[in-house]
UniProtKB/TrEMBL annotation:
Subcellular location: Endoplasmic reticulum membrane
GO CC annotation: endoplasmic reticulum membrane
UniProt record similarity statement: Belongs to the BCAP29/BCAP31 family.
Protein name: Endoplasmic reticulum transmembrane protein
Residues that span the membrane, as ranges: 6-22, 43-64, 84-103
An individual GO BP term: endoplasmic reticulum to Golgi vesicle-mediated transport
InterPro entries per the UniProt record, alphabetical: BAP29/BAP31
Membrane topology, as annotated: Multi-pass membrane protein
Keyword terms of this UniProt record: Endoplasmic reticulum, ER-Golgi transport, Membrane, Protein transport, Transmembrane, Transmembrane helix, Transport
The species this protein was found in: Manihot esculenta
Main location per the UniProt record: endoplasmic reticulum
Task of the protein: May play a role in anterograde transport of membrane proteins from the endoplasmic reticulum to the Golgi.
Length: 133
C-alpha cells in the first residue's frame, strides 16, 4: 500500500510541475484533464476521493487506538511501535495525495481561466485597433 501511495504522490507532483511550466506537455495535460472532467469523470474522482478519505479516517482512528493503549499501559511494545509508524506513514501519504489532487484541480482551473482571459484581452485589443483605423 505504501509503494502505491508513494508512486501516486510522485505522479501528482510531476503533474503539478508539468502544469506550472509552459511546455507542449502542458497543453496535452490540460486537454487530458479537460476530457477527464467531462461525463462520468467528476463522479469517479469524487468516489475515489471519498474512499481515500474513509480509509484515511480509519487509519487515524487506528493511530488513536494505539495512542490510547500507550496511555493506559504507559509504554508501547515493539509491535505497536511498528504499527504506529506504518499507520502514520500511510496517513501522511494519503493526506498529501488528497491535497495534491486538490492542488492539481486548482492549478488546472487557474490555467484555463488565464487562457480565457488572454483570449478576451486579444479580442478587446483587436476591436480597439480596428475602430481606430
Amino acid at each position: 500500500m505504501i509503494h502505491v501511495l508513494f508512486s501516486l504522490v510522485f505522479v501528482e507532483m510531476a503533474l503539478i510541475l508539468a502544469l506550472l511550466f509552459r511546455t507542449p506537455m502542458r497543453n496535452l495535460l490540460i486537454i487530458g484533464i479537460d476530457q477527464l472532467k467531462r461525463g462520468r469523470g467528476p463522479l469517479v474522482a469524487k468516489t475515489v476521493a471519498a474512499t481515500l478519505l474513509a480509509v484515511f479516517s480509519a487509519i487515524l482512528y487506528s493511530v488513536m487506538e494505539i495512542r490510547k493503549r500507550e496511555m493506559e499501559a504507559g509504554v508501547l511494545n515493539s509491535t505497536d511501535e511498528v504499527l504506529m509508524a506504518q499507520r502514520l506513514l500511510e496517513a501522511s501519504l494519503m493526506g498529501f495525495s488528497l491535497f495534491l489532487a486538490m492542488m492539481t484541480d486548482r492549478v488546472h482551473y487557474y490555467i484555463r481561466e488565464l487562457y480565457r482571459l488572454r483570449e478576451e484581452l486579444e479580442q478587446v485589443k483587436t476591436i480597439k485597433t480596428g475602430t481606430r483605423k
